[in-house]
């Protein structure tokens, strides 16, 4: 008999959360703390979604998306998770850039960036100040017509080097481009510039373990290996889910599954207005990634001066199409030193990440796919040699992931690393107007993606869900008392 991963579930829950990415986990925890009964269903055998890791023989643990997030994570984790989680967030102090235009190190905050722009790039101090103030004052309700390119043209006309310094890390952090609305750049850039780039000490495995413990404490019914096949409606409202062949009733649903999958597969477009479906069809998915994971032999350490995050590029100029091309010119290296996981034997690991297009990998035959992965590993080792001399002799394990890998493990269409482009946010927020009781929380619209964006979106949506359940129960009590 196959194992029943839904054994002993309740017949009904206040909320079912579909997916255990950071938004799903946070929504589930927040709602359970608010006193709601919550079932969390994750199709994979691990919680965390893109916030994940894998282990390989020799004691190597690779993090997939733990490269850096803004300081806001400390506040969000303290408020919506635990002090232990918040206290484990530490700064990455050595962020490096190395490309044909410039090579520099920075702590990646406003003071340091201002100094660099004024002293190394000769930008007038008043312009730098005005740019930072403009970026910091941006919010979601501002003009969405101005693009990031127009913003840069206004402050730094003709300065491709300045644009590269300001844009390259953000493109890496959330896939945004010069053509995206300036607010999607300004908000994320200012979040980082407030205090720099942070990471989680102990690695993603420790974070997710601590989150799982807190979910259990909050009373969330956590189930892995549970693939939700259908969201069922009654009179247009949420009624239940069907997962692993079982139907479970609920008052409300938070889908942390990909936005498009939620609308078109889990619910079905016949349940939405025509205009809403047109808007949803127009939503563009964000790009995907390739990664090369490299673990050094146990006695081989990388000196910490090498940097924490290194944005390296051989391209003469910054261009989005070059960043996405299979002909790779840009790589972002994350260096994990022994203090990332202070317990156990000291280890140094490197993860090289590059933004990528799904179709470049999906179109390959099995043999071509294998060869392309091998080529990516080889060319990355060649490129890393510049920063880690003799790396080939010193490396113990090398492995590659592609957009197909991300799709396989998270079900994200096109293996999208950062959800959807900007327009996805309005569609995600409009779902409950279409299907009462149904909410979406997860990487959308650039602003709500990344670790911090996903956690914060989970909180926002859980508050909406709580109000919805409260309102519906008041309405049904009033209906009962008038009978
Ligand atoms: C290579 C890479 C590097 C990144 N680097 C960074 C970084 O440095 N900093 C940063 O802040 N962010 C980074 N990110 C982005 C960040 O990891 C994501 O934005 C964030 O983790 C997404 O969280 P989410 O809540 O949207 O859910 P996701 O992580 O997308 O998870 C969704 C979950 O839903 C589950 N699911 C889907 N459908 C179903 C179903 N039908 N039934 C049950 N379960 C389902 C999936 O299995 C998955 O677990 C990176 C991402 C990638 C891929």
Automatic annotation (TrEMBL):
Transmembrane parts of this sequence: none
Pfam families: Amino_oxidase
Domain Amine oxidase: 22-443
Family to which this protein belongs: Belongs to the carotenoid/retinoid oxidoreductase family.
PANTHER family linked: B-CAROTENE KETOLASE, PHYTOENE DESATURASE
One function term, GO molecular function aspect: oxidoreductase activity
The organism's place on the tree of life at top rank: Bacteria
Annotated Gene3D superfamilies: FAD/NAD(P)-binding domain (3.50.50.60)
Protein name: Amine oxidase domain-containing protein
Coiled coil region boundaries: none
């Amino acid at each position: 008999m196959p194992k029943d991963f839904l054994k002993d579930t309740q017949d009904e829950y206040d909320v079912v959360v579909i997916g255990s990415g950071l938004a799903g986990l946070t929504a589930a925890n927040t709602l359970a703390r608010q006193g709601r009964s919550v079932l969390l269903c994750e199709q994979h055998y691990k919680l965390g979604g893109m916030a994940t890791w894998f282990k390989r023989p020799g004691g190597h643990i690779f993090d997939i998306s733990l490269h850096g997030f803004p300081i806001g994570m400390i506040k969000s984790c303290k408020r919506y998770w635990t002090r232990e989680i918040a206290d484990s967030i530490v700064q990455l102090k050595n962020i490096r850039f190395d490309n044909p235009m410039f090579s520099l190190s920075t702590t990646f905050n406003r003071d340091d960036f201002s100094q660099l722009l004024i002293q190394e790039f000769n930008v007038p101090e008043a312009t730098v100040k005005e740019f930072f103030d403009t970026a910091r004052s941006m919010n979601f309700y501002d003009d969405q017509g101005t693009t990031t390119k127009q913003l840069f043209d206004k402050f730094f006309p003709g300065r491709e080097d300045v644009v590269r310094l300001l844009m390259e890390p953000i493109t890496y952090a959330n896939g945004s481009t010069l053509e995206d609305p300036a607010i999607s750049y300004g908000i994320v850039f200012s979040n980082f510039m407030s205090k720099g780039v942070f990471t989680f000490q102990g690695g993603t495995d420790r974070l997710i373990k601590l989150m799982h413990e807190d979910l259990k404490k909050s009373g969330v019914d956590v189930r892995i290996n549970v693939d939700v096949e259908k969201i069922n409606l009654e009179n247009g409202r949420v009624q239940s889910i069907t997962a692993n062949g079982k139907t479970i009733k609920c008052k409300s649903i938070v889908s942390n599954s990909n936005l498009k999958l939620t609308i078109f597969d889990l619910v079905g477009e016949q349940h939405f207005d025509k205009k809403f479906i047109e808007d949803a069809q127009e939503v563009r998915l964000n790009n995907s990634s390739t990664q090369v994971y490299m673990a050094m032999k146990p006695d081989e350490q990388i000196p910490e001066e090498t940097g924490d995050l290194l944005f390296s590029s051989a391209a003469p100029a910054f261009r989005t199409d070059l960043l996405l091309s299979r002909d790779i010119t840009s790589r972002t290296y994350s260096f994990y030193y022994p203090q990332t996981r202070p317990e156990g034997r000291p280890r140094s690991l490197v993860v090289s990440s590059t933004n990528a297009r799904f179709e470049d990998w999906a179109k390959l035959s099995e043999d071509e796919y294998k060869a392309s992965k091998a080529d990516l590993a080889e060319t990355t080792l060649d490129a890393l040699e510049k920063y880690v001399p003799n790396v080939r002799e010193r490396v113990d394990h090398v492995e590659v992931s592609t957009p197909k890998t991300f799709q396989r493990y998270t079900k994200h269409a096109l293996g999208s690393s950062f959800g959807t482009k900007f327009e996805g946010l309005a569609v995600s927020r409009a779902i409950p107007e279409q299907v009462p009781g149904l909410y979406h929380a997860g990487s959308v619209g650039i602003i709500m993606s990344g670790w911090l964006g996903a956690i914060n979106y989970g909180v926002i949506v859980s508050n909406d869900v709580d109000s919805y359940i409260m309102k519906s129960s008041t309405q049904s009590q009033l209906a009962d008392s008038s009978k």
